[in-house]
Amino acid sequence: MISLLANRNYARLFAAQVVALLGTGLLTVGLGLLAYDLAGARAGVVLGTAYTIKMVAYVGLSPLAQAWAQRLPRKAVLIGADALRGGVALCLPFVSDLWQVYVLIFVLQAASATFTPAYQAVLPDILPEERDYTRALSLSRMAYDLENLLSPALAGLLLAVLSYHWLFVGTFAGFVVSTLLVALSAIPALGRAAAARPFRERLSRGLRIYLATPRLRGLLSLNLAAAAVGAFVLVNTVVLVRAGLGGGETDLAIAMAAFGAGSMAAALVLPRLLDHLSDRRVMMAGARGLAAVALGAGAVLWLDGLPGWIVFLLTWSIFGFLYSSVLTPSGRLLRRSAHAEDRPAVFAAQFALSHACWLGTYPLAGWAGEALGMGPALMLLAAVAGLGLIAAARLWPANLPDAPEHTHPDLPDDHPHLRAHGGRRHAHPFVIDDEHHVWPTHG
C-alpha cells in the first residue's frame, strides 16, 4: 500500500485527508470542553444536538452541494470547502452562546458534506487501476482509525500546556495545510455533460443511479447493518466501561482503541483478500459475523453481565474488524456503478444515505441502552443488522452478472451505442446512464 505514495497527486490528497482528520479530532475534543464551559451539566444535551445537526447536514445537504458544485472546477470546490471549515474553526474560540455553536457546526458540516464526497469521487480518477484504488480505500480506513487513536493523545498534550481554545487553532491549521496540499494536486476535470444538465437532474441523478443499481441497494442495506452495531459501540462504550466495569477515562480510550485496532487489521488484510474474493462475498461475510457476534455478546450481557476486561477488549476488536470488512470495499462498488462524470453524484448519494442509517441507529442505541439495558439493546441492534443482511441478500443476488445481456428497443437503429456494441441485443459492463434506465433483471 505504501507504494501508492509514489503517485504524487495521490500522496498530496492522502496527506490532506490525514491532516484534516487530525484537525477534526482536535475539534471534537475542543467542542466537548466548549459545551461544558457554556452549559455545565447539560453539556451532553448540547453535544447531542450538535451531532444531530451534523447528521442532518450530511443527509440533507450532500446531494444539494454536489449538484451545485458540478458546474465548478473540482479543485476549487475542495479548496473552498476546506477554507470554509478552517474559518469556522477559527470562529469557535470566540463564541459566547449556544446558538452560535449550533450555527457554526451547521456551516462546518455543510462544508464537510461538500468536501468528503467530492474528495472520494476524485480518487478513482487519480488511481484508475482497481488494485491501486482498493489499497487507497484501505489506507483511508486506516487514516480514520489512526485519527481516533492519535487525536485524543495530541489533544491531551496540547491541553497540558494550553487552554482548550487552542485546539480550535490546531483545527484551523489542519484545514489550512489540507487546503495547500489540495491546491498543489492535479485533479482531473469532470466531463462537460454532467455540468450541462439542469439542476433538478443533477440533484436527483446520483440517487436515481444508486437506487436503480442492485449492488448499491445491497450496499445501503449493509450500511444499515454496520451502522446498527457501530452505533451501539460509539454510543454505549462509555457507559459499559465507566459504569459497568468501573474504568476511567484511560480505560475508555483503550476500549475505543481496541475497536480501531480491529478495523485497522481488516484494512491491512482486505487488499489481498479482495484480489481473490468478490466484494459481495467479503462484505456479506463481515455483516453476518457482525450480526452474529452482536447477538451473542448481547445475550451474554443480558444473562451473565459484563465479561472480563480482556474478553471485552477482544470483543470490541472483533466488532472493529467485521465493521471495517463491511464498509471498506464500498468505494469499489461505487466506482464500478457509474461513469466518471456521474461518480460525484453517486458518492454524494452514498454519503447521504449511509449517514441516514446512522441518523436512525444513533438515537436507537442510546434509547435502547437506557430503557432496556445494555444486553437487550445490543440484541435489538443485532436484529436490525440482521434485517439489513437479509435485505442485502435479496437486493444484491449472488449470481448477478456485471455485464448482463440486454436489448434497447427504445433506441433508433443508427444510435452510436448500438453501433459501438454490435447491435440491438448485446452485453457490456452495465451501469445506469442515459441509455440504460433500469437494470435488465429488475424491470
TrEMBL record:
Topology term for the membrane: Multi-pass membrane protein
InterPro entries the record matches: MFS, MFS_trans_sf
Transmembrane segments: 12-36, 42-64, 148-166, 172-195, 216-240, 252-270, 282-303, 309-334, 346-365, 377-396
This protein's UniProt keywords: Cell membrane, Membrane, Transmembrane, Transmembrane helix
Compartments (UniProt record): Cell membrane
A Pfam family hit: MFS_1
Superkingdom: Bacteria
The name this protein goes by in its record: MFS transporter
Source species of the chain: Roseovarius ramblicola
